[in-house]
L-xylulose reductase
Amino acid sequence: TSFDFSGKRVVVTGAGRGIGRDLVIALVAAKAQVVAVSRTQAHLDSLAAQLGATAKASLQTVAVDLGDWDATRAALANLGPVDGLVNNAGVACLENFLEMTKEGLNTTLDVNLSGVLNVSQLVAQGMVKRGKGGSIVNVSSQASMAALASHTAYAASKAGVDMASRVMALELGKHNIRVNCVNPTVVLTDMSMHWLDPVKGGPMMSKIPLGRFAEVKEVVDAILFLLSDNAAMINAVTLPVDGGFLST
Ligand code: NDP
């Protein structure tokens, strides 16, 4: 990677698998100190093992259910100095609107929206107190801006993240804290394997001008850019990483 995060401490949520896990590995390679937050301790242990002994010195792990507001506050109470935050943890409870359940809706909003605001507020309070500014990147989705069947709760949560990020950016700008979103198209992780079904995935892929889904690395690179000082004047944007899907 060409990014240099030496001297920076970055919190990454949803670090156990998928995009978040590769992001942590890229950040450690770019010399960041990383606090990796995820629900399942075993996934964090396997991440630490993958990073190996030397890199492990750059990694701190916290296992918590980010859908639980109070447990999250308690788990992150003594976070220490933070320069960057990536709210990447997310769930996709896909249900047709007419069959949508209270549980599916609540879990989605608790993790994808309230969880993001909770961690962002905690981290931003620390950043303001410290007075050194900071960068927050929220992993949203193309589903915040384009209607996709069975995505009611997910889309509402991500659209909420997009707009909340703009308000956070508005209020936090005077503290030199930037808040941006990345909005990926389909990335083939555990969350999105259902898109491999050609009946579902084919029409989606055909609407992407580049004719393919996104690679995890392509999302990670966009996050690293917005997180870094290279993006010092970029604030309150929603950056599609979608091969052009949202433009059509
Ligand atoms: P994965 O399902 O591969 O990984 C999700 C990660 O989030 C896991 O590490 C999981 O923890 C963690 N997580 C989920 N719920 C909680 C919770 N309640 N508390 C703490 N951690 C939690 O998903 P992706 O890597 O694909 O997704 C990452 C982000 O990208 C999400 O916000 C998603 O909405 C977004 N996105 C994904 C797309 C895709 O096609 N994959 C497209 C557009 C956006 P654990 O390992 O413990 O289960």
